[in-house]
Each structure stands twice: as C-alpha cells, then as structure tokens.
Amino acid sequence: MHRLRPLFFLFLPAVLFAQNSSRPQPPRLVIDTMEADLGQARSGTVLSHTFRLENHGGRLLHIRNIRTSCGCTASDISTREIPAGGYATLTAKLDLTGRSGPQSEQIRIQSNDPEAPNRVLKLTAHAVPRVNVTPRTLNFQQITPASAPSGRIVIEATTDTPLRITGIRTANSRVETTLAEVTPEHTYHLDVRPLELGETGHFTERIEILTDDPEQPVIPALVMWQIAEPVSVAPRRLNLMLSESPQAVTRFLMIRGQADLDPPLEITSVVWEDRDIEMNIGPGGSFGTRVEFRFVPEAEMDGERILIRTNVAGYEELALPVNVMTP
C-alpha cells in the first residue's frame, strides 16, 4: 500500500494539467482596425464606417458599453454577445453638418476581455464647408497710430447653390467693413479697417457674417491688431521692493524702435533723475536695446523718474516712473 503512493502523486500533476488545459480560454476582443479615415466630404454629409469585432477567445464576449465623443457621432452594433470564434459589426456614423476642416472623433468600447477591457476607435475626416471664409482670423500684427491699414476676407460658396450675404455685424464697432460682390451670388470680398488707432495696446474684434445658407447662417471671423508707439519701453514702470536688509539689485530695461524709423532709433542717454546711478547700454538682440543698472533700493526713490533720451521726433525724452513698495 505504501509503495503505491509515489505512483499516485506522480500521476496527479498530469491529471491537473489535463483539467486546466481543457478549460476554455477567456474572451479576447480583436478589431480589424482601430482608426478609419473617412476622407474629405462636404459639410452636411453623413459618413459611415463598419468595424468588425471578433472574439478570439474561448468564452462569450460581452460588449458592456459603447460611448461616442460627441453627439455628431453615432454607432450601431449588430450584437453585444459575441460567441467564441464569432464576430459582430459596429457601424459608426459621423455627421459633418455645420463642420469645417479636420475632424477627429472617438468611440470607446468596454467589454469583458480581461486583457483589454477598454478599447478606443477613432474616426477622422475633413469637412469642406458650404461657405468658405478665408482667413477666419485677420491679423494685422503690429501697426502704428498714424497708419490705417486695410485687410481682406474672402467669402466664397463651395456649392452651386446661390449664396447671399444678408449682413455684417461687429461686436464692438472697432472696425470698418466694406462688402463687395465679386461673382454674383458666389464670391464676396469683405474689406476690414481698424478704427481704434489712438491708443497703444492689443485689440481684437469679432465679426459675424450673416448668410442665407441654412447650415451656416452666421459665420464668425476675428480681427486682431497691435498698436505700438515708434519708441517703446518695457517695462513701462520700474517696481521696486524694499527689504529689511538692504542689498543691491540688478534691473533691466528694453527700448525698442519701429523698424521703419528713418533715421533708425538712437538712444542718446539714460539717466536716473537726480541720482548718479551707473547704467550699461548695449544691444538686446531682436528685443531692441538693453539697459542694465545695479543699485540699492531706497524708500526715497518712490515717485522718481528714469529719463530716456532719443533721436526720434516727438520721443526725444521718455520718462519711466519708479514705484517703491514695502513688504
């Protein structure tokens, strides 16, 4: 009896291995492609693609949830229960109504596949709008207070359907617009000119182009510009902070002149009014001229000025105020 025990334990691992090998493998979701490029189509078109979902495992594959990234994307699956060796089809639709340019949407699939329970499918396409507006952002970049530049926005129908521009609206009346019909009921030129040229700074204006197109009745466009003085100084104010233990600090100024100045900007002197503080003036690369000075901040400096003298008419002397703050 004792001699049979070794033989029993010798055959036990083989029996357990046979039992384990006979167990069905868990479900495994395999998808024919994870990304579908639907190509280029006109706005208003509904594009579709059918994905093939296969079960390469040994047990039932259950599709628990399907979610799309936006309301413009819909999906329809043939079955949520896929047997071992079987497959299902998932048809995804992308609605391009009111869309323009590159499009990218996702479909998230949750299943009982233990190795990859979450899968993400991707749909891409390029929507061609029924009405094309170029550019959507008209950027004048940097202009001078004396200039009054004008830019052009082209409005063009991409279909054979007649297009009428019914109106132009501006959000803050910062620009002047002139609309011209180039090709009857097809192509229009909208000339835009900034109106606020008195103050320096960054400006934006929103334009709304009103059309009779049912998909694009209101088309937004943005106008941007920056007004800079012929000579600018940064920062516009020198802020200093006093400390309990006075110590020397280093400060910088950047002085820049417009590229079209004739003659070019020349800085004749930089002085701290009523103080003898040494300053070093040198090139600052594309940022202009750099002024560096080192000193110990004092409470009495509050309200003083740094005077910058140049060769530019109307900007012969610029005053930079000094502001001293206490902790």
How would you portray this structure in words?
By secondary structure, the chain is mainly β. It folds into 3 domains: 24-128, Immunoglobulin-like, CATH 2.60.40; 131-227, Immunoglobulins (Immunoglobulin-like), CATH 2.60.40.10; 231-325, Immunoglobulin-like (Sandwich), CATH 2.60.40. The protein is built from 1 helix and 25 strands. It has one helix at residues 5-21; strands spanning 29-31, 35-42, 46-55, 61-68, 73-77, 81-82, 87-95, 101-111, 118-128, 131-134, 137-143, 151-157, 165-170, 175-183, 187-194, 201-211, 218-227, 231-234, 238-241, 249-257, 267-272, 279-283, 289-295, 305-310, 317-325. The strands form 6 sheets. A 5-stranded mixed β-sheet has the order 2-9-8-4-6, with no helix packed on it. The protein has a 4-stranded antiparallel β-sheet with strand order 1-3-7-5, with no helix packed on it. A 4-stranded antiparallel β-sheet has the order 10-12-15-14, with no helix packed on it. The longest helix is centred in the first third of the chain and has 17 residues, at 5-21. The N and C termini lie far apart (95 Å). The mean pLDDT is 88.
- Count the domains: 3
Mean pLDDT: 88
Pairing-aware structural class of the strands and helices?
mainly beta
Question: Can you tell me the CATH class of the largest domain?
Answer: Mainly Beta
Based on CA atoms alone, the radius of gyration comes out at 35 Å
The helix/strand order is HEEEEEEEEEEEEEEEEEEEEEEEEE
Q: Count up the helices.
A: 1
Q: Superfamily at the CATH H level of the largest domain?
A: Immunoglobulins
Shape designation: flat
